[in-house]
Write the structure tokens for this entry.
Amino acid sequence: MDLLFKVFIDPFLQMGAMPDLLVQTLWEGLVSGVLYALIALGFVLIFKASGVFNFAQGIMVVFAGLTLVGLHEKGVPAWLAVLLTLGVMLALAVAVERVVLRPLVNQPDIILFMATFGLTYVLIGIGEFIFGGEPKQMITEELGLPRGAIDVAMLGGRVTFQKIDIAAAVIASIMIAALAVFFQYTRIGRALRAVADSHKAALSVGISLNQIWAIVWFAAGIVALITGIMWGARSDVSFALQTIALKALPVLILGGFTSIPGAIVGGLIIGIGEKLAEFYWGPLVGGGIENWIAYVIALGFLMVRPQGLFGDKIIERI
Amino acid sequence: MNAMNHSEFRQDIAPGETLLAVDNVTLRFGGVKAITDVSFDIRKGEVRAIIGPNGAGKTSMLNVINGFYHPQEGRITYRGQTRSKMRPHVAASQGIARTFQNVALFKGMTTLDNIMVGRTLKMRTPFFWHLFRHGPAMREEIEHRKFVEEIIDFLEIEHIRKVPVGKLPYGLQKRVELGRALAMQPELLLLDEPMAGMNLEEKEDMCRFILDTKEQYGTTIALIEHDMGVVMDLSDRVVVLEYGQKIADGTPDEVKKNQKVIDAYLGVAH
């Protein structure tokens, strides 16, 4: 009985008793949720256009962050470094399309998936060779990102909002909205959705798969850079950062691999869910829930809705 | 219907002249010969049927023409230009549109969006403007939308404009696919069994659309069809394939009387 009380009733009593702490927890969950959504978007873009789960998305985040910081260390002004990094991500996209995707076109998905594994290690190697293996400080100040915190008195307590978190949430939201509009309403967005549905039909109306793939990988590269800056500003830029990409996996399972709204909602559920779980249920098992609760939520979802919240329903004709 | 005028990309090929010529084409998959030494031509403004029993190489022939397959031997001359290897999106940009035997639509998208995709190649505004949906991009979008609505009128599919095509019955899907091909304002339209799986009424509609396309837009059409009644009614000339080889070529009447064709279709006592 005591255990049941601690699991099912006590946490909610605590939430009610200290609403300011609840708001603080929700806010932190929201911020990481938005960032998860951003990472998941990088995956969704590439999965939609080519049916490939891009294992290298995580290392692309690190690679973009390292390039940016590394360029700045060499004396390049911050904003110019951002532009140059975008150039590097474009070059990477074109190279991946030319060297990896094009020769493997029409191969089974698992082959392409393995190729992105290879790409991961190539990028790790190049990154370590050029920038070294030590963690680097993100150039937050130089990019004009705010520092410090705002304390707001509310609900009989104080809630602290880190300014960098506010900036991260706003920028990630703008990025997500821009991508959603881009894919829903523009000519290239329409072509991309067409490619996602049927390669041969897209080819027959004159859409070049090579061009679309390069564009999509570049878009994923831009997402990686933004993620790298925002996530790097909260911790630092190191190769350990690539594991946040693994957090995108439960987000994708929740939202569906092919859905942009799914990535957003899934990201928020995972982000808020894991912060709530850590804060209110964590003490029951001695903490550390944050690291695995996302996968438990995803597993539960898989059993009920394998196609995800917004994914395409899988219908098979026999 | 002025917007449907094709003059912008038409070169000086007069009706009745050769638009596309296939010369001695051979296509192999490993050791299997799908097409053996086939030659024929398609003249501007005609409806050209390709017929033959199952497995005769008809669809392979269409795939060779629009660049999905690359033949090992032979040449293809389109609008006076001989080529060895063609990529599908280049074929599309030069005015070759097609439909597929098993409808290949963008199932998650609406009828309207599906047909709009057919306009992709005709859109020219720089990428930059599209990000903002303003100025030239908006004007262009509206212009193309108007064109697409004309096609929707023409094919009588107004009522399903906003329906995701995956939910439509097969006959209507075929019609949407034709619409997408027409949106490309093709010089040459390849139809792979446009009436397969349709009931009589749907077939009659489709026949009418094909003839109207030819009349109104002057599109040259090459089609594969199994319904002999339809083939004989629609086409100006017919080429007959069997086991990847050409066994007859001529007007419907000539082909009908050809002994080889009769044998191929009815079987022959050995």
Summary: The CA atoms of residues 177 and 260 of chain A lie 10 Å apart.
